[in-house]
Amino acid sequence: MPLSPSLHRTEMSFPCPHCGHVVTKDGSWFRARAHFPCPACHEDVKLSYQDKVALFAKYGGVAG
């Protein structure tokens, strides 16, 4: 399932699984990352392809 490029400029929110802090960035930011440090707890947040598919689907952007 490819991630729709139509959401590259759409703001998306993803909660840190460690502390619950919500990270909000453009779709292109999430698409380009496999992990990132949480700005609140500084833990490494892993972002699998399945996580990305679920995130993009939440915003209506998984191409079929």
Can you offer a commentary on this structure?
This protein has 64 residues and is α+β, with helices and mostly antiparallel strands. The chain has one domain. The protein has 2 helices and 4 strands. The strands form 2 sheets. A two-stranded antiparallel ribbon has the order 1-2. A two-stranded antiparallel sheet has the order 3-4. The model has no long low-confidence stretch (mean pLDDT 92).
In short:
This protein is 23% helix and 25% strand.
Describe the structure using short key phrases.
64 residues, alpha+beta, two-stranded antiparallel ribbon, two-stranded antiparallel sheet, 4 strands, 23% helix, elongated
Q: What's the β-strand tally? A: 4
Strand line-up in the sheet with most strands: 1-2
**Beta-strand residue fraction:** 25-35%
| Biggest beta sheet attributes | 2 strands, antiparallel
**Discrete helix count:** 2
What's the gyration radius in Å? 11 Å
Tell me the distance between the termini. Answer: 6 Å
Q: What is the ordering of alpha helices and beta strands?
A: EEHEEH
Task: Report mean pLDDT, rounded to a whole number.
Answer: 92
**Coarse shape:** elongated
Structural class: alpha+beta
Indicate how many domains the architecture comprises.
1
Residue stretches low in confidence (pLDDT < 50, at least 5 long) are none
Work out the helicity level.
10-25%
